[in-house]
Amino acid sequence: MAVSVPLVFNAPRRGMPPTHLADLDSEGRRAAVQELGLPGFRADQLARQYYGRLEADADKMTDLPASVREKVGEALFPTLLTPVKHVACDDGTTRKTLWKANDGTLLESVLMRYPDRATLCISSQAGCGMACPFCATGQAGLTRNLSTAEIVDQVRSAAAAMRDGEMAGVSADGRSAGSAPGRLSNVVFMGMGEPLANYKRVVDAVRKITAPAPDGLGLSQRSVTVSTVGLAPAIRKLADEGLSVTLAVSLHTPDDELRDTLVPVNNRWSVAEVLDAAKYYADQTGRRVSIEYALIRDVNDQPWRADMLGKKLHKALGSRVHVNLIPLNPTPGSEWDASPKPVEREFVRRVIAQGVSCTVRDTRGQEIAAACGQLAAEN
């Protein structure tokens, strides 16, 4: 039986946080400092502190006159996110953070360090309105959209943690090599929320994550992944933004009958419509599309579904697609469970046999409730 889902994407139930420097473009920053009675050049100075030096505390901005730091801090650097707890696992190479926004809203991010990269999984909403039954966040419902600055500040904080050696280094064999400075290299919008349901702020945040200082944090667009459960019109809109980010589509099954239940938004945009939008994205950007597929025991792991998935993806996208098979991270009390390894291997084999690249995602953080929404639900 299909599950209905309210498709009111930009109607958060709580107010947005106060304006922060990371909400403003260069003109907005200049206007803001002039309103404070400061010369316009201070706008660039503040932006270089935040984006270049990763500093969010005006009291520590020593190139700013001490007499105006408090005023600047209150106006442009309100505390947006306060860490409630950090929980680490995988020998310290994975760290999940539970954040509290200034209105009490809880959200999560996960920083994962590998031998060749450091990836941050960030949230774009507090909660999620997509109601996917196997997802802890989806079952919690939507609290509100995050602001641009709340999204960007998750990335700034992680970049500072890497720079300051707060995360364990990783040796070539994947083991912890003790604390060591590093650099944040990748950002994935795969935390709490449906990114394309908070479209304007997510795109604004992507531009600020990837623009060079003093306008942004300077990560490569190709190192940013934006995920979606399949909001087809928004996928097409994103394709026309002139960005080079990776699109990840959480498909989870190739047939409409099951997807209507697993991903209720499918009742509005079918598998065929989602794949057609993904093809448009690939055509416009030249980027390969990632298909996310959480493999669930006896639900979507049948051999015939692997065959159907491979055939549909090859027909729609040819070689411009890759399947990320995700062993389900079970949530407490859930009826859903991960598929056995032999079933997983056969699924991969069958997808590849249809001419589609397919790999199993490295799973991390199961012992720290790293599935989206679990830590927030516990608190």
TrEMBL record:
<dbReference type="InterPro" id="IPR040072">
    <property type="entry name" value="Methyltransferase_A"/>
</dbReference>
<dbReference type="InterPro" id="IPR004383">
    <property type="entry name" value="rRNA_lsu_MTrfase_RlmN/Cfr"/>
</dbReference>
<dbReference type="GO" id="GO:0000049">
    <property type="term" value="F:tRNA binding"/>
</dbReference>
<dbReference type="InterPro" id="IPR007197">
    <property type="entry name" value="rSAM"/>
</dbReference>
<keyword id="KW-1015">Disulfide bond</keyword>
<dbReference type="GO" id="GO:0070040">
    <property type="term" value="F:rRNA (adenine(2503)-C2-)-methyltransferase activity"/>
</dbReference>
<keyword id="KW-0411">Iron-sulfur</keyword>
<feature type="binding site">
    <location>
        <position position="227"/>
    </location>
    <ligand>
        <name>S-adenosyl-L-methionine</name>
    </ligand>
</feature>
<dbReference type="GO" id="GO:0002935">
    <property type="term" value="F:tRNA (adenine(37)-C2)-methyltransferase activity"/>
</dbReference>
<feature type="binding site">
    <location>
        <begin position="193"/>
        <end position="194"/>
    </location>
    <ligand>
        <name>S-adenosyl-L-methionine</name>
    </ligand>
</feature>
<protein>
    <recommendedName>
        <fullName>Probable dual-specificity RNA methyltransferase RlmN</fullName>
        <ecNumber>2.1.1.192</ecNumber>
    </recommendedName>
</protein>
<dbReference type="GO" id="GO:0030488">
    <property type="term" value="P:tRNA methylation"/>
</dbReference>
<dbReference type="GO" id="GO:0070475">
    <property type="term" value="P:rRNA base methylation"/>
</dbReference>
<feature type="active site" description="S-methylcysteine intermediate">
    <location>
        <position position="372"/>
    </location>
</feature>
<feature type="active site" description="Proton acceptor">
    <location>
        <position position="108"/>
    </location>
</feature>
<keyword id="KW-0489">Methyltransferase</keyword>
<dbReference type="InterPro" id="IPR048641">
    <property type="entry name" value="RlmN_N"/>
</dbReference>
<feature type="binding site">
    <location>
        <position position="135"/>
    </location>
    <ligand>
        <name>[4Fe-4S] cluster</name>
    </ligand>
</feature>
<feature type="domain" description="Radical SAM core">
    <location>
        <begin position="114"/>
        <end position="361"/>
    </location>
</feature>
<keyword id="KW-0963">Cytoplasm</keyword>
<comment type="function">
    <text>Specifically methylates position 2 of adenine 2503 in 23S rRNA and position 2 of adenine 37 in tRNAs.</text>
</comment>
<comment type="similarity">
    <text>Belongs to the radical SAM superfamily. RlmN family.</text>
</comment>
<dbReference type="InterPro" id="IPR058240">
    <property type="entry name" value="rSAM_sf"/>
</dbReference>
<keyword id="KW-0004">4Fe-4S</keyword>
<keyword id="KW-0819">tRNA processing</keyword>
<keyword id="KW-0949">S-adenosyl-L-methionine</keyword>
<keyword id="KW-0698">rRNA processing</keyword>
<dbReference type="InterPro" id="IPR013785">
    <property type="entry name" value="Aldolase_TIM"/>
</dbReference>
<feature type="binding site">
    <location>
        <position position="132"/>
    </location>
    <ligand>
        <name>[4Fe-4S] cluster</name>
    </ligand>
</feature>
<feature type="binding site">
    <location>
        <position position="329"/>
    </location>
    <ligand>
        <name>S-adenosyl-L-methionine</name>
    </ligand>
</feature>
<keyword id="KW-0808">Transferase</keyword>
<feature type="binding site">
    <location>
        <position position="128"/>
    </location>
    <ligand>
        <name>[4Fe-4S] cluster</name>
    </ligand>
</feature>
<keyword id="KW-0479">Metal-binding</keyword>
<dbReference type="InterPro" id="IPR027492">
    <property type="entry name" value="RNA_MTrfase_RlmN"/>
</dbReference>
<dbReference type="Pfam" id="PF04055">
    <property type="entry name" value="Radical_SAM"/>
</dbReference>
<feature type="binding site">
    <location>
        <begin position="250"/>
        <end position="252"/>
    </location>
    <ligand>
        <name>S-adenosyl-L-methionine</name>
    </ligand>
</feature>
<dbReference type="GO" id="GO:0005737">
    <property type="term" value="C:cytoplasm"/>
</dbReference>
<dbReference type="GO" id="GO:0051539">
    <property type="term" value="F:4 iron, 4 sulfur cluster binding"/>
</dbReference>
<dbReference type="GO" id="GO:0019843">
    <property type="term" value="F:rRNA binding"/>
</dbReference>
<dbReference type="GO" id="GO:0046872">
    <property type="term" value="F:metal ion binding"/>
</dbReference>
<keyword id="KW-0408">Iron</keyword>
<dbReference type="Pfam" id="PF21016">
    <property type="entry name" value="RlmN_N"/>
</dbReference>
